[in-house]
Amino acid sequence: MNLAYRDIRHGLGRFLLTCVGLGLLLGVVLAMIGIYRGLIVEALTIARAPAVDLWVVEANTRGPFAEASRIPGDIREAVARIADVTAAGSITYQTVETEHRGDKLRLYVIGYELTRPGGPPAIAEGREIARSHYEMVADQSTGLALGDRIRLGRHVFTVVGLTRHQVNSGGDPAIYITLPDAQKLQFDLAPPAARVQLARGTGGSSLDTVNAVVARLDANASPEAVAETVRRWKHLAAITQEAQELILTRSLVDRARRQIGLFTSLLLVVSAVIIALIIYTMTMEKLKQIATLKLIGAPDRTIIGMIVQQALALGFIGFAIGATLIFNTKDYFPRRVVLEPDNVMILGLIVFAVCLLSSGLGVRAALRVDPATALGG
Amino acid sequence: MADAPDRPLVHLDHISKHFGEGETRVDALREVSLDVYPRQVVALLGPSGSGKTTLLNVIGCILDPSSGSMELDGEPVLKDGLWLRPNLRQLRLDKIGFIFQFHNLIPFLDATDNVALVLQLASADAVATRTRAVELLDYLEVGHRRSAMPAKLSGGEAQRVAIARALANKPRIILADEPTAALDSKRAGIVMDLLRKVAVEQDAAIIAVTHDEKIFDRFDRIFSLRDGRLDEGVSAESR
Predict the structure, then answer these.
(1) Do A135 and A155 form a contact (C-beta atoms < 8 A)?
(2) Is residue A210 helix, strand or coil?
(3) A191, B54, B113, B160: which sits with the fewest CB atoms below 10 Å from its CB?
(4) How far B2 CA sits from the closest chain A CA (Å)?
(5) Phi, psi (5° rounding) for residue A330?
(6) Residues on chain B touching A13 (C-beta within 8 angstroms)
(7) Cα(B207)–Cα(B195) distance, rounded to whole angstroms?
(8) Could you tell me which residue, B20 or A138, shows the higher pLDDT?
(9) Does the ipTM exceed 0.85?
(10) Based on the domain organization, do A201 and A60 belong to the same domain?
């Protein structure tokens, strides 16, 4: 006769309600872990999108994400000629705000050369950009659909393809346009401003400026060795992909990452305390029954088994409810929630450990109950 | 009245129990000696604080006495204030049945399982325990309520199930703490008749703490406790 099961079955509604409450709490913990992971993944998404080994940026900067970087576009050709470089492409990055169907739309615009590294990693719907001007590939999180037309600067672009999960470290969805369009958007002045610049004698400078040149290397090449070659030119900085990712996670999103990490830790501690209190209270409510069990001769293992099994059942069901909830709602979060199996498994193990420890409190209380308390009123 | 055979089921020899020391010392039991024989139904009376519950706890192997010796069902279990068995819970399971004032049935088990639980704790197999549980419930005329949860039982029915649970492991010593306190006169009489039936048919000894004067005539022997001393008979103070 399984006493834990019988007790749960007897008060099933109450037990399930407790599980749902705990499940909601654990769901929040999972969501925070997912948001934490999502922040890191999003921070790295744009840097990983071109699938390159080397970033060549303005000297003495850690661009193009952590710091501003501007270099001449023809650097790309010089980089492409370095030994072990198999392909190179120029890229621009900028954030713009526009309107779409009456709503403000904040976009992270990536300009790239159509046949070179730097374009969207995969097209989820539609096609890649095929024309030199005024086509764009947008991320699905923009809310744009194929065929939508949207104004960027002084030109209207047509959405021809859609990507998935391409956002920058701030969560702004990415759109891809051709490098010339991006350069015009970034550097081309409006006619009145251009006239002012011409009048001051500062106009007419070259538009062929980019934020970075990215390079793919031969499989056997050392990215650090190639980077060193680039640095020797003195006027350029070169960052390997590994270093770039480190910059993004350690510098760009570090505070946000630590903030969420700390909050998640606090939430875990709060969850542990709540689980402990629930299990302790469940046990305290049964002290008279436990005293009776002891009096009629039930061994400690029967009583311990009842408390521990109930604690584990509570934790398992609560965790299952929380996980189900988050897995079914994570796509509705404004920013990406990334839950890897190892995150879920680790939290599951933590909940398991917390339940065991918490049941220890209940077990301690139960074992200290004097069987004589079963006698009398 | 039951005849007293030679060997008592409960034999207490100069049992004493005190709490605290020095000025705060309270002598709950003083040199209490008692023999209760099979088929006897015995009452323990006494005013509040007289030591009734302490004595019941000592006989039930729940409380350590300060001194004295005790035999239960012919087995020496206590000598000079020291228990002779390490596992008193097993001793209770083997030899003693308990009946409580408020039945104390496990609320999440039905009537049958409340009885079967004791048998399962004693390692009987599941089918046998249920069969025996149902037999006991029938014996105590509450078999028609075998599937009812405790909350659905009347006071009298619940107390009968509690008696069935006390009898489950065939103990020969049954300790009852105010077994009729929560019942009206009619049901109290029925419960006492059942206890007598159990004592006679199961060859058991029943020791009950009670204040219930309306059932005094159902006992074979009545003992009074006053200031920790035990006397046979009913005194005015003990009522």
Answers:
(1) no
(2) strand
(3) A191
(4) 27
(5) -65, -30
(6) none
(7) 10
(8) A138
(9) no
(10) yes
Same domain for A210 and A66, yes or no, is yes
Both A292 and A146 in a single domain? Answer: no
CB A15 within 8 A of CB A9: no
How many angstroms separate the CA atoms of A46 and A44, rounded? 6
Quick one: average pLDDT of A38-62? 90
pTM: 0.75
The alpha helices in A171-240, defined as continuous H runs, are 179-187, 191-200, 223-231
The secondary structure of B120-166, three-state, reads HHCCCCHHHHHHHHHHHHHHCCCHHHCCCCHHHCCHHHHHHHHHHHH
Q: Are both A127 and A184 inside the same structural domain?
A: yes
pLDDT for A278-308, tens place per residue?
888 888 888 888 998 888 888 889 999 999 9
Q: Which two tokens stand for residue B45?
A: 């009376």
Identify the weakest region by mean pLDDT among A166-180, A197-211, A223-237, B197-211: A197-211
- Minimum distance, in Å, between the CA of residue A286 and any CA atom of chain B: 10
Architecture of domain B37-64+88-232: 3-Layer(aba) Sandwich (3.40)
* Residues in chain B closer than 8 A to A297 (CB atoms): 89-90, 92-94, 118, 121-122, 169
B177 touches chain A (CB under 8 A): yes
Confirm or reject contact between B93 and chain A (CB < 8 A).
Answer: yes
- The nearest CA of chain A is from the CA of B226 a distance in Å of 19
Query: Is the same domain home to A35 and A116?
Result: no
If pLDDT is split at 50, 70 and 90, which confidence band does A218 have? Answer: very high
The Cα of A300 is separated from the nearest Cα of chain B by a number of Å equal to 9
Q: Which residues of A touch B102 (CB under 8 A)?
A: 377
Task: Please check whether residue A49 lies inside any domain of the structure.
Answer: no
Same-domain check for residues A264 and A204: no
Partner-chain residue, chosen from B90, B126, B177, that has the shortest CB–CB distance to A297: B90
Nearest to B101 among A3, A293, A376 (CB): A376
